[in-house]
Structures
1.
Amino acid sequence: MQTQINPAPTNSELPYNLAQWKQGYRSQKQEYDYQITEIDGEIPAELTGTLFRNGPGLLDINDISVRHPFDGDGMICQITFHNGKAYFRNRFIQTKAYLAERAANKFLYRGVFGTQKTGGWLSNVLDLNLKNIANTQVIYWGGKLLALWEAAEPYRLDPKTLATLGIEYLNNTLKPGDAFAAHPLIDPIQNRMVNFALKAGKFDRTGLVTTLTIYELDLDGEVVAAHPHTIPGFAFIHDFAITPNYCIFFQNPVGFNLFPFLFGLKGAGECVKFQPEQPTKIVIIPRDPHSGEVVQTLETKSGFVFHHANAFERDGKISIDSICYGSFPEVPPDIDFRDTDFNTLAPGQLWRFELDLKNRRVDSQLIEPRCCEFPTINPANVGQPYRYTYIGAAQTLDGNAPLQSILKLDRDSGTQQLWTAAPQGYVGEPVFVPHPQGTQEDDGWLIVMVYNGVRDRSAVVVLDAADLTKGAIATLHLTHHIPYGLHGSWTDTVFIDDLAHS
Ligand code: CO
C-alpha cells in the first residue's frame, strides 16, 4: 500500500482487479482470537480502546450463495488497542435464524435482498417471516453492546467475549417484531443516542403510509424520548441525520411491488422500484415533540440516498451532506452480485442540500464527483457545523468502481487528501477516533479494514486523520480475510483483561 495524491488512471489500466475484488466476498466461517503480531509501522501509544465492526460473515450455506451480501449473517470483529498492541476477535451473532440454518445446513428463511429458502418458489410463497441477521452496525452505549439490523430488534452481545446475550428490548420500549434502525447517531452536546424505526407499507384511511418513530437514549441507555410520526407513501430509509433540534430523513422516490414478494419470487429489497419521475422528499421532524413545531416535508430532485455525512443548523437553515445515486443500485435479476458490472451502476457522489424551512426551498450542490460511500466525521461535530469529511472512495475519478481509497475533504480550504490501497486493496468504512488530547477537528486517527486481493487477507489500517498523505501509520495484518463489512464504531473502553492489565 502506498500513498498517492489524485492519481489519474487511464481506462485501459483499471486500478482494480475484478477477480481479486470478488474474493473478498467469500464467507469467513472461522472464529478467531489472537494478538496481532504482523504489524508494519507502529500503533500510537495514545490509541486505546475498542473498534467494533459488523458485516455479513456468512455468504453461503453448503456452497449455495446468498443472493445479495446484505443477506449474509452478521459477524462482529472486535479490534482492541492498548499500549501499542492490538488484539483481534470475531464472532457470529447467534441469531435464531443463524442457529437454525447452521443446524439444518440450508437456508430456512427468506432474505430481504432476495436470498430464497432452499426448495424454490413453492417453499417461499406467502412466507413473510424475514430473517433478522443483525449484520449492519454494532455500537456500545449505556453499558450494552448492540448489533443492529434495520428491520428488527437489536441483538445484545457481551462486549468482552462477543457472546450473544439475546434480543434487546431497551427496557420494554420495543415489542417483539419492532424495528430499530442500524444508524444510531450520538448527539455530542446532549450526550444522547438518537435512532429511528421505520414501519413501511401500512394502510390507513389516506392510503399507504409509513411510520417513523424517533428514539433518544441517555448515557445510561434509558429511553428518554420515543415519538411516532406518520408520513404518506412507502419509504425505504436506511440512515438519517440530526441537528440539535431536528431529525432529517430522505424519503427516496421508490415504490414497492408487493406481488412478486408475496408470491415468493423475489426478496423485499428486490421489489423496491426506483421512480425517477418523482422527487425525493426531505422529512424534517422536530426532536422535541412538545416544541409546537410540525413535521415539514420539502422536495428536491429525484435520487437515491443510503448515507448522510452530517447536518447542522446555521442562519435559520439546515445544511445536510449526503451520498446521492442517480438511481437505486439494483442487482439485475439472475446475476450473482459478485459479477457486478461497475460500469452499469451510477456512482454515489457527495452533495450538500440547504433546507430553507421558512421559504420551503431546497438548494443542492455537488461537492465531490468521485464515486464514494461510507462518509464519517469527528464524532464531536455530529449535528454541528464542521470542516472535514472522510469517505471511502473509488480510485478512478469518474464512474462507479470498488472503494480503494480514503478521501479527506476540507470544506474550508476546498482542498482534499487521498490515501489509497490500490491496486490490490479494497477499503471499507473509515471510523474516526479522536485523539485524547486533540484540539483540532482533524486531531485523531482513521481506522479502516482493507482487504488485500493479492494476499487474500485483510488488514486493519491506522491513518493520521490530520495528514493522510503521510501514508498508513500502522498496518495490522490479520492472518485471514474478513468479508467486506458495513459499519463500525469506536469506544475508548478496553474490555479484554489481559490487555487492560498489561
Ligand atoms: Co449504512
2.
Amino acid sequence: MERLQKVIANSGYTSRRKAEELITSGKVFVNGKKVTELGTKVSYEDIIIINGEVINKDIPKEYYLLNKPRNYICSLKDEKDRKTVVSLIDTPTRIYPVGRLDYDTTGLLILTNDGELANILMHPSNNVEKVYIAKIEGMLTPDEIKEINKGIIIDGIKCHPKGIKIRKKDLDKNTEIVEIKLVEGRNHIVKKLFSAVGHEVIKLKREQYAFLNVKDLASGEYRTLSLKEVKKLYNLKSK
Ligand code: URA
C-alpha cells in the first residue's frame, strides 16, 4: 500500500505537489469513491480516476540502468538548477530514480516509472544488497573495521554492513579504497558510517545493486533492463 499522492505522481500523471492539490480539491476518485484526505493508502491495483480519466492503467513500464556521473542530482527538479539524472535518459515518460545517490556520488542507479518495483527495492525488509567503493582519508585500523562490522548507530538506528574489504592502500597520499556492502538505503549512509569512525569519504561509487552492475557502461551511459532482470528484481520481495 502507498500514499495516494505518491501513486498518482508515480503514474506520471503529475507531480506529487499537484497530486495533493487535486486530492484536497476533490478531483480524485479511487475505485469510484471520492477521496479528499491526503495520505490515504491505496494499492497499485486500485483504479484512480482524475477528471474522468483512469490515470494508472496501461502505462508501459520503463526500466533503466544508469552509470551516474558526478555532479548530477537525483531529484526530479533542483532549485539551484543543477543537472538531473533524469535528463540523461532519452524518454518522454516521467521516470524517477529508485533511491538516491549524492550529487558527487557516481555509479549504479535504476530509474523507472514502476512504483511497485521501486517500493520493493527500497523497502528495508527486502534487504537488497548494494556494494559501494569508497576512497577514504586515512587508513582504517583493525579496531575500526571491527567496530564497523559490529554495526554503528547512525542517527539513532544501527547500520549493520554485510561486509567490508580493503581493496587498495595509498601510503603516500594516506588514502584507502574500501569496498562496503550494505542493505541500508538511508541518505548519505556510507559517508556517515565512515565519518562515525573518523574518516572522510573523498570519492564514492555504487558498483553493484543486487545482481546488477555497471561494468559495461561508461559514465553517463545507460541501458534498459531486460524483462528477465526486471522479474529477478521483483523476486527480491521477501515472501
Ligand atoms: N551513501 C552515501 O553516503 N552517499 C550515497 O550517494 C550513497 C550512499
